[in-house]
Amino acid sequence: MNIKIDENLDIPIYRQVAGAITGEIKKGQLEYGYQLPTVRQLASELNIAKGTIKRAYDDLEATGMISKTRGKGTFVSWQEETIASRKDRAMAAIDQMLDLMEGLRFSPTEIDIFLDLKLRERLQREVLVSVAAVECCPETQAMLARSLYSLSGTEVFRKDLYETMHSPEGLSSSADLVVTTPTHYEQIFPLIGEEKTFAAAMELTPESIAALSRLGKGRLGIFAGSEKFAVLAKVAAARYASQTVFVFRKLSGDETDMAVFLRNLDIVVAPAGILRVCTKKEEELLRDFAKEHPVVEIAYRVDEGSLLYLSQRVKELQLRSRR
């Protein structure tokens, strides 16, 4: 495994280790079923405390990246889940349930009635809290919303900051909770109300930090859809990468201009999911560039403390709705 520790970073070492391993797993460099070194072995290899490695492994296990089997070792357990694989698993589960009910001698009509009753129960029991992700930067807004999707019992939607400021009444009535970044909290809470507004701290993901830290020398360009995210990417690259030359290019759909842009670069940094918003030609140019040069996609996420508070807030709102 390619794990590099930088003690000058203000990121705990266990998180650097966990982030590096997560990055290699998601890139396919550590495949499903791969056996990781023991805590003792990896601690010796990296020359750091065993407790630090154990904490990194515990975090990786909690996020489903790895699994520990007593007496056998620690293995990669994460697999990229596709829509097809989810469907296959769901259909297999339904088949097992139907086999069981048929074994109990229920007729197809009875099975249909039972399923309808249980589905109605679940729909009545589930109280969804409506959460709005509000930001002015499209990339940051998407990443904020992506973090909020992890909150159970919520339905998340995105709202533009400027639209919210010009017409706060619609958002105030449609959202149970409005989440924004600390930069815009002071603008929003006077309009929506302090009780319904929360400022979520955002942090660069460990995978992004690890990818930036591994970059070599070269001319680095930033390719983004908004200047605001380009500024964030420039700050991140300046902090974690060794480059000092930055070039910003906003998405424009001008493929000729983009070809010239890429021709003068050695490295491209872009927001995660950049290929989904490119034109087909821009995507082809980026993929061609990536065959010989690094293309690093970076992402931000809501930090653990903010997510914990939001989870508690969602539960409170659910209990209040049931009363």
In short:
The chain is of the alpha/beta class and 323 residues long. The chain has 14 helices and 13 strands.
Break the fold down into its secondary structure elements and pairings:
Layout: H1 13-26, E1 35-36, H2 39-46, H3 50-62, E2 66-69, E3 73-76, H4 83-103, H5 108-125, E4 129-135, H6 138-148, E5 154-160, H7 161-166, H8 168-174, E6 177-180, H9 182-192, E7 197-199, E8 202-204, H10 206-213, E9 220-224, H11 227-240, E10 246-250, H12 255-263, E11 267-271, H13 280-290, E12 295-298, E13 300-302, H14 304-322
Parallel strand pairs: 4-5, 4-6, 6-7, 9-10, 9-11, 11-12
Antiparallel strand pairs: 1-3, 2-3, 8-13
Helix pairs in contact: 1-3, 1-10, 2-3, 12-13
Content-based structural category:
alpha/beta
Task: Please summarize the sheet with the most strands.
Answer: 4 strands, parallel
Q: What would you report as the Rg, rounded to the nearest angstrom? A: 23 Å
CATH architecture term of the largest domain: 3-Layer(aba) Sandwich
The side-by-side strand order for the widest beta sheet comes to 5-4-6-7
Counting DSSP H or I runs of 4 or more residues, the number of helices is: 14
N-to-C order of helices and strands: HEHHEEHHEHEHHEHEEHEHEHEHEEH
Quote the distance from N terminus to C terminus. Answer: 52 Å
Q: How many discrete domains?
A: 4
Number of strands: 13
Q: What share of the residues does DSSP label as strand, in percent?
A: 15-25%
What is the CATH topology classification name of the largest domain?
Rossmann fold
Shape: globular
Question: What's the mean pLDDT score?
Answer: 86
Helical residues, percent: 40-55%
CATH class bucket of the largest domain: Alpha Beta
Uncertain stretches? none
